[in-house]
Amino acid sequence: MPLIEPNKTAFVFAGGGSLGAIQVGMLRALLAANVQPDFVIGSSVGAINAGYFAGAPNAEGVARLEDIWRTLKRGDVFPFTLENAFGLFRHPGHIVDPGRLRRLIDANLPYASLEEAAIPVHIAATDVHGMAVRLSSGSAIDAILASAAIPGVFPPVEIDGRMLMDGAVATNTPIRLAAELGAARIVVLPTGYACALKEPPKRAIARILHAITLLIAWQLMRDLERLADETHVCIVPTLCPLDVSPYDFSASRYLIERAADNTRKWLEDGGLARRSLPRELAAHRH
Q1: Which helix (H) or strand (E) holds 165?
Q2: Angstrom distance (rounded) from CA 208 to CA 275
Q3: What is the pLDDT at residue 1?
């Protein structure tokens, strides 16, 4: 892929577990309005969506991604079996075997190396020192798995001698990276968080994922405050109120349709012309 030129549009995909389905609805509405990125960046589950979209950055590709999400089950991503439970004694550093997730990505990703994607794609991960790592070439599957390697849930992934984990730790919504790569307009596709849960998640992984989605929101607020005025950042509005846990994969159809309708209305109201402000992401309750 050629080097990225300045004054481009970047789509930035945040993390958020099963709430990644929301990004598919956003993509559908953005492409219907002829909003196209010159390159994409993804972190955590956003790395999965960004990686797939970069291979088929058109309405047909988004429709296929939607089909994947509509049939996705929790066990396809977070299988927890007796074998996993006994495996904790052999590898106490993580709960879930990433084998199923690797097979899911391998079965659907239309390219092997990041540089083979139809448009430039960059994956954000974190090294053991907490430093953000940008992956722009090499194995696409390894890069995506590294970005999605939630600490304690999935094992870290070794790439070029470095052990890498979830991009959420250092830069879950890597808008500053998009600016450094020359984007003059950054369109952020967040997943939001379950702001209307009636009670805290009960399962360990559900609690971890909920905490990560909160971390994403606060990190995005800080990044918006630090970005230079010349960078135009548009954050596609999240779904609010939202009572779906990021560990619940049964609501994908609902999330996609609601996000598509929400994004369409935002675009019709001139959302892309307005620069997003940090206060729009302030903590709240219902």
Answers
A1: strand 162-165
A2: 31
A3: 41
- Tell me the whole-structure pTM to 2 decimals: 0.91
Alpha-carbon span 263 to 192, nearest angstrom: 13
Q: Which residues contact 192 (CB under 8 A, 6 or more apart)?
A: 16, 19, 22, 213, 217, 238, 239, 240, 242
Measured between alpha carbons, how far is 41 from 124 in angstroms, rounded to an integer? 7
- The answer to whether 243 touches 258, Cβ cutoff 8 Å, is no
Residue pair 155/149 in contact (Cβ under 8 Å)? The answer is yes
Letter for the amino acid at 34?
A: N
Cα 36 to its chain centre, rounded Å, is 18
Residue 159 CB neighbour total at 10 angstroms: 18
Strands (E), 21-137: 39-43, 121-127, 132-135
Residue from 66, 18, 44 nearest 250 by CA? 18
pLDDT tens digits along 146-164? 999 988 889 999 999 999 9
CA distance 158 to 146: 8
| Geometric angle at alpha carbon 52, from 50 and 53, rounded to 5° | 65
- DSSP E strand boundaries for 172-213: 183-189
Q: Quick one: average pLDDT of 14-40?
A: 97
| b/e 220-251 (16+ beta carbons within 10 angstroms → b) | bbebbeebeeebbbbbbbbbeebebbbbbbeb
**Angle 140-147/45-55 helices, nearest 10 degrees?**
150
Side-chain half-sphere CA neighbours of 208 within 13 A: 16
Query: 231 φ, ψ to 5°?
Result: -95, 120
